[in-house]
Amino acid sequence: MKSTTALRALAAAAVMACVSVPASAAYQVLDGWQITVPGFAHGSPATDTYTNIGHLVLGGGTATVSQQVNGSGNVFTGAQFSETGMINSIAYVNENCVGNCDNGVQKIFGVGPDGQAYTLELAFSNVSGFVDSLIGSGFHYTFLTGGYSLIAIVNGVSTTVAGGSIIGLGGDTNTTNVIGGTTGSSTVLANVANQLFGFDVADSTGTSLSAGFASGQYLLQATTTNTLNGGSVVGGGCTFDGGATFVPCVNVQVTSEGALNVVKKLPEPGSLALIGLALAGAGAARRRKTQA
């Protein structure tokens, strides 16, 4: 009898969860996570762990965007782009707010013997996507693919500590010229396919998330605002899709700043509904068996 009641409760909870979780809430920002990186405290091969992190602070670095445009020099729905560049992090903000709202004093990882701040560099290449809609005088765009490396720079020595792929999301801009306009913004999701040289990310209890990253349960999320530094029309065209060349296009330089979070993938609403139905069915089957 107690088992039947429990099954009913689980089924009801799963169905209610399906109702209460909006379709857009596919990812949840992790609170108070930890990061272990090589040699940040003293420039040695040893590793150092930083705890209770709200997010890493992103800033500096430059990206080059090649953007397909029409004869008037403006983007259009379906226009493609590619992006290569880097963005740095030398600081983090401690956890002080549930979700993506942490603020306060930035803490640097440290300063090396060379007097330079220890740096995590997010270097990305062959990031590509397309414009999916025009919005007023601007447009919205979607990322399709790309790769990145996370590089630790300690005392002038660069060491790749992690890497993976860009797997989605996008951004918007208020200019019809290029991706990453003066007040443009981007949100990028990336998996962590490999971790090297003692690099690790853990939850607030210190439990490693390596297996969760490998399975896609956890992802990195970079949210930035982007500033256009200038650009030029490329008369010879830009190449996308592994060889197709488009004319005309624009090459621009963009700088970005923002935050790097760890996010957890939530069950899809449809999956929750199936769980609820399965549990409800299990409860019904058990009742029939008991009555028999």
Automatic annotation (TrEMBL):
According to the entry, every stretch annotated as the Ice-binding protein C-terminal domain falls at 267-288
Protein name in UniProt: Putative secreted protein with PEP-CTERM sorting signal
Q: Source organism's superkingdom?
A: Bacteria
Record carries keyword Signal? yes
| Annotated InterPro entries | Ice-binding_C
Q: Where is the signal peptide?
A: 1-25
> What are the UniProt keywords, alphabetically?
Signal
